[in-house]
Amino acid sequence: MGLNHLDLAIIAVYLIGITLFGLRFRKKQRSLRDYFLADRNIPWWAIALSIVAAETSTLTIISMPGLAYDSNLTFLQVAMGYVVGRVIITFVLLPHYFRGDLYTAYQLIERRFGTRLRTVTASLFLLTRAAAEGVRVYVFHRNHHRAHPDLYV
After folding, report:
1. Are residue 12 and residue 32 in the same domain, yes or no?
2. For 93-127, b where at least 16 C-beta lie within 10 A, e where not — what string?
3. The dihedral sign for the CA sequence 29, 35, 40, 43
4. φ/ψ (deg, to 5) at 113
5. Which residue would you say has higher pLDDT here, 82 or 140?
6. Are 148 and 88 within one domain?
7. Which 8-state DSSP code applies to residue 69?
8. Average pLDDT over residues 102-120
C-alpha cells in the first residue's frame, strides 16, 4: 500500500503552505532576540496555540479519541492537567519573558537557581523527550506489525 496522487498532492500543499507561512513571519527577524521574543508583538492567542502545538504529539492526537471511545472519560484528567499547567505557565513564566530578555525557560531557571539546576532540568527534558519518542516508535512498530505481519517473517 503506497501513497496515491491525492496523498502526494496533500503533502505537497502542506509543505508549500507551511513554508510560505514561515517565510511571512521571518522577514522581521534580524537576531536571536527577534526570533525568540518576536519583538514582543505576538498576541496572547498565538502564544497559547504555540504552546499547545509544541506539547501535543501525533500519538496524543491519534490515541485520545480511540481511548475515549474504548473506555470512559478518565483520560480527561490529562487534559485538565494541561489546563492547570498552562495557567501556571501564564502566571509564573510568561511575565519573566516579557519583563526581561529571557529566550528560554532554562535561562530563568539558571538566573533563579543556578547553572547546576539548569543542567539538571535540561537533561531531564532531553531524557523524557527521548523516552516519549521511544514510545511513539514502539507504538508505530507494534501497530504496523499487526497490520502487516507478512513483512516481519
Report:
1. yes
2. eeeebeeeebeebebbbbeeeeeeebeeeeeeeee
3. positive
4. -120, -10
5. 82
6. no
7. H
8. 88
